[in-house]
Amino acid sequence: MTERNLTMLTDFYEFTMANGYFEKGIGNRRAYFDMFFRRVPDGGGYAIMAGVEQLIEYFNNLHFSEEDIAYLRSRKCFSESFLNYLRDFEFECDVWAVPEGTPVFPGEPLVTVAGPMIQAQFVETMILLTINHQTLIATKANRITRAAEGRTVLEFGSRRAQGYDGAILGARAAYIGGCQGTACVLSDRDYKIPAGGTMAHSWVQMFDSEYEAFKAYADIYPDNCVFLVDTYNVLKSGVPNAIRVAKELEAEKGIRARGIRLDSGDIAYLSIEARKMLDAAGFEDMQIMASNSLDEYLVRDLLVQGARVDSFGIGERLITSKSEPVFGGVYKLAAVEDENGEIIPKIKVSENVEKITTPHFKQVYRLFDNKTGKALGDVLTVHDEQIDASLPYVLFHPVYTWKQRIVTDYTVRPLRVQLFKHGKCVYNSPDVEDIRKYCIREVDTLWDQIKRFENPQTYFVDLSKKLWSCKNELLEACRI
Amino acid sequence: MTERNLTMLTDFYEFTMANGYFEKGIGNRRAYFDMFFRRVPDGGGYAIMAGVEQLIEYFNNLHFSEEDIAYLRSRKCFSESFLNYLRDFEFECDVWAVPEGTPVFPGEPLVTVAGPMIQAQFVETMILLTINHQTLIATKANRITRAAEGRTVLEFGSRRAQGYDGAILGARAAYIGGCQGTACVLSDRDYKIPAGGTMAHSWVQMFDSEYEAFKAYADIYPDNCVFLVDTYNVLKSGVPNAIRVAKELEAEKGIRARGIRLDSGDIAYLSIEARKMLDAAGFEDMQIMASNSLDEYLVRDLLVQGARVDSFGIGERLITSKSEPVFGGVYKLAAVEDENGEIIPKIKVSENVEKITTPHFKQVYRLFDNKTGKALGDVLTVHDEQIDASLPYVLFHPVYTWKQRIVTDYTVRPLRVQLFKHGKCVYNSPDVEDIRKYCIREVDTLWDQIKRFENPQTYFVDLSKKLWSCKNELLEACRI
Q1: In chain B, whose CA is at the least distance from the CA of A26?
Q2: In the prediction, which pLDDT does B256 show?
Q3: How far is B350 from chain A (nearest CA, A)?
Q4: Candidates B19, B132, B188; nearest CB to A160
Q5: Residues 21 through 40 of chain A touching chain B, CB cutoff 8 Å
Q6: What is the CATH number of the domain that holds B224?
Q7: What DSSP element (H or E) covers A395?
């Protein structure tokens, strides 16, 4: 895999601020930053965390080359002592993150970075870019696979992705979120995302007839025959030719054709009619794949109409999350340490209530009901708080504080893992295959009400009493 | 700049088809493919071509490493002779493309590839991915800069981009389309897109007061003072502190502060009030920048409301083209050569009339009115046709053929350049700075009716009589 140094993939103001902290002698003050998001795309009930492996690569590669230093010097606004600092840069931060594949919710810190102000600030752009992108696509993939109700969903969107990484890492994120594979070969070679595909319309056009095109394909790939049947006329030509070649394949080699693909037209009608024709010809096992600008809404709608589709190839609407192509993660200062090493929580107020941050260096816990195995809610606490599962726990709403719920017979799990300890990586990313399985298990812990597309229930993300009090005190102090 | 070999960034079916053509002995048959699009995003009147330089890099780098061969062998569906062909792969195609920065229209071939079937097919995914992405962003940037009516527009979206190239090459495309700069440092280092930026809210929060934060910034960057004024309260605190520090900067160093930035709240109201305060304090030259989830519609709306904004920082809605995040370019077979080297035009029919392709190996001409300098229309011809500008030319509508227009006193220009000749690059990409200037000049050749956001006039993209007849004959022949 090609290693790229993405250290310079950052907003220019990260450098002006870094140099500024350096010059003012406060660059080494320890600061705490949280990455979190405020709402789930498409009005969904949860998002699927993704991108942590690439974030770790970024931190591990963080360094400034002589070329970078020369570029920065040419900008004539950074001091030589700062450039020397960059030349000898060593990453010293602690980093925590929610593991990939975990369902996550608005308001909870997905990534926390603690370390020298100058460093903890600098990594903002890449943390947001990496997690925002992959979480967006994993979340969309999870919606689409849910709509497909157990049918296969494949990611087919490379050609419409927003840039090369949009395709490559988008395929990875889609797999984490639930897709069974991709069309993207590079994602298979480098990230072990199973890639597949058979033929385009141009294959069919290159032969003198559709039959000859299918026949040629079956000669070469007898084990992987999925015929694209909509180049001329699906029901009059495509399906009959597919059946004819499937029969010959069976007669000549004893191999069953895998199926057909519909890439245009009325998928509901055509799939139902094609199914009848395949069944009547004795090919009940031949599958029907559909792939025409689909998303979770169209997939669900097709199934409501009784479409006989066994697998879906999803392109542009998945790889760009077309209906909502932005995951709005932000990265905010949560605390700084004073000279004595005491943590001073920081809050960012706003006239928009939902833009007020939750201060302090925090921990995140997820509580599971022991009877059902279902997730009860997440609790944000001050970093050193523990939740003792042998005692009842009071979940209460951070705004409507009279809304309380006492939970008993539960298990508690810290939601995040530590990735870096004083700049050294202390976490091994799981295989993407394991992440995908973990995602399926974790989504299973959510109640159906959280999972529906329209008006899902809001999952509890509450604050501990201690954290709630801290936030309120800071809010009171801000009142002018 | 890090070189990446993106040869394997392709759909798996490109390989199954390539191996298939190879095995059937038709891999070297010469084929002609066109890349074109069917509609302009956001209902616009034109798109801005971008991505050609990256496409050239891709073609120049096209080769298969031993690692790639090993991966393909592991898939157990490709012949050893095919893998040997890939090992010795040499790109032999001819490639033509519309230069970057050119306004382009639905239905015209933006890229044409002619060469051995096996190769001309294989490059489909990367041509589409590259041109679709950058053309999407350049087109959006052009809309936003048009809305800003001469004010500065900067691209600020890295953190919300869809992957790393989405940020890096998105900044490049945005610059081509009309932005004056970016926040993305890597795009500046590698692509000479001017990057800039000053401070985030966290800078302001890190000091004991807003005044001290601004003062510290002015100490270090006296020549580049743009104060972010919305951390606490824009009019009660942010602007007064900015004015105080600006006065001190002037008194102490004789330097004028550059301006202030608004990143939240009611930009129309706040900018008008802030303008009054700055003017009253004698800082008529301090500029006001706005940057809060803006796009062309909000920019236009702000200006209609009389907002006093001098420059716009545009993030997620530009870097993802949020309102329409997909550019739907397609890549279709247009012709093949027979054994005698005769070009056989190919058509792809569809029940959707707009999905019917225009067959044949084509040329594209743009006609300009000599009196006004304005573009009159584009004409697609068979490849060997010339348009003699000394004679009147009849433009006619390809569907409503009675709609004709005779043009005289015009200049004709082939719209495309040749990039590769038998696999060798014969084109030097211009500097991105020159592309940007060229784009401004070329957009100036479009009538205002084409440029408006709502219901723009449809620009003429016509066929020559010869090409129109060819298309009609093929359509007649398809009729079942």
Answers
A1: B206
A2: 98
A3: 8
A4: B132
A5: 21, 23-24, 26, 29, 31, 33
A6: 3.20.20.70
A7: strand A393-396
**B336, closest residue in chain A (CA to CA):** A206
What pLDDT, on the 0 to 100 scale, is given for residue B2?
47
Interface contact B128-A160, CB threshold 8 A? yes
pLDDT range class, residue B479, cuts 50, 70, 90: low
Which are the contacts of B228, defined by CB distance < 8 A and separation ≥ 6?
B198, B199, B200, B201, B203, B204, B238, B260, B261, B263
| A146: amino acid identity, one letter | R
Cβ pair B20:A220 closer than 8 A: yes
Average pLDDT over chain B reads: 95
Cβ pair A9:B346 closer than 8 A = no
**Helices (H) then strands (E): counts for chain B:** 17, 21
- How many helices and strands (H and E) does chain A possess? 17, 21
Q: Are residues A408 and A466 in the same domain?
A: yes
- Asked whether residue B369 falls in the same domain as residue B270, the answer is no
ipTM metric: 0.96
Q: Give the three-class secondary structure for B160.
A: helix
CATH number of the structural domain spanning residue A19:
3.20.140.10
**Would you call B125 and A77 a contact, using CB atoms and an 8 Å cutoff?**
no
Residue B185 in domain? no
d(CA A261, CA A287) in angstroms, rounded, equals 8
Instruction: Specify which residues B11 forms β-bridges with.
Output: A184
Over residues B395-411, the mean pLDDT reads 87
Work out the percent of chain A whose per-residue pLDDT is above 70: 99
What is the arithmetic mean of pLDDT over A428-453?
A: 97
Per-residue pLDDT at B1 exceeds 70: no
Which of A185, A233, A317 is the best residue to mutate to test the B interface, defined by the most B CB atoms within 10 Å of its own CB? Answer: A185
Question: In the numeric block, which tokens belong to residue B129?
Answer: 């991915």
Mean pLDDT on A102-126: 98
Domain containing B277: what range?
197-286
Continuous segment of H or E residues that includes residue A17: helix A12-23
Within 8 A of A169 by CB-CB distance, chain B residues are 163
Torsions phi, psi of A35, nearest 5? Answer: -100, 130
Q: B228 in contact with A at a CB cutoff of 8 Å?
A: no
Whether chain B has a CB inside 8 Å of the CB on A57: the answer is no
pLDDT above 70: percentage of residues in chain B: 99
- 3-state class (DSSP) for residue B63: coil
Residue B212 class from Cβ within 10 Å (0-12 exposed, 13-18 middle, 19+ buried)? middle
